[in-house]
Amino acid sequence: MTGIGAVTPIGLEVDGLWAGILAGRSAVRRITRFDASSLSAQIAAEVPDFDPAIWLDGKALRRLDRCSQFAVASTRMALADSGLDLDAEDRSQIGVFIGSALGGAAFAEEQHRRYLEGGDHAVEPNLALQMFVGAGSCNAAIALGVTGCSTSNADSCASGTVAVGNAFRAIQRGEADAIFAGGAEAPLAPLCYGAFARIRALSTRNEDPERACRPFDLGRDGFVMGEGAAVLLLEERDHALRRGARAYAEIAGFALTNDAHDMTAPRPDGESASRCIRLALEDACLPAESIDYVNAHASSTRLNDSTETLALKRALGPRAYRTAVSGTKAMHGHALGATGAIEAAICCLAILNGYVPPTLNLENPDPACDLDCVPLTGREMALDVVLSNSFGFGGINGCLVMRRA
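Now predict its structure.
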């Protein structure tokens, strides 16, 4: 991984993202994107200072919704950060894989309101081009002029992780020299947000937003929705070495499983999530004892955090109790399909800088979450191998193993 682009509530670009992690503060606030006063949940992690005009030309500004703007901007950031000269490359060997749980659904919701008020002539002409999940990856490929393998996925909260993992696989198979991979999400609209509130998945700690997301804490009551994007440039090793690229970390293994249990609740015994972790380690040809840090999915929901703890114990055995585990969503929120990519970027930077991010708001640990969850304050330590978990609606489990390059 030789380049990182990030549009997140805690910071923009690679330096802003890492500064946000080191600051150790929550970006969760009262929602300003729309009037949420009628909803049970009224808080979110919004990206406060994103100016799309810096990253997109006038034509793209007019035609791209917020989700695609995030995708294109973070891809351009990753390119700039990597130092890759596209003019010196075979663009047919460079791809784009960007996942999103909802894609342009929030944009479509806004356009539906306009349709009800003014009919079809009031709707943006480009609605059909922006509401599908693949719009982000396609627009990023157009922006860069790269014609290699390009795809997207809508694997719920695992989408960003799946995109990175699939890009890893494509490069392994020799299908590309380099792939921009990640996730983008802009779900903060009344119906999109309200649908999650309706199923009681969101925290209702509205009077205390910064302390609402509480991974592994006994008082957790739901996740806090966020927005944003992250894109990583993955390169085949020899390709990166030939151009003298700086490497943040190396993807070593990837796996996917499904609970086949429930659309929202994880399988109670954690077996499918545990198997996903084991398969990712097997893919990396690494033992459980090699894991130094786990960036947990840690969504701050009652069932997820305890089940993930169980899955880690089953997969890592005694090593689970000697491994640092933290959940960073208390800082940047849960940006659905973008979150796995944001957390993969954080893992790269954690390896590079020798620092484990904290689990904010972990003040009263749940006895069922009894691992070393790095409460409140981050920790300096050498990291050679890191595991990143993403578990989504529908029982989708995605795991990435990263190691020092």
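The longest strand covers residues 250-258.
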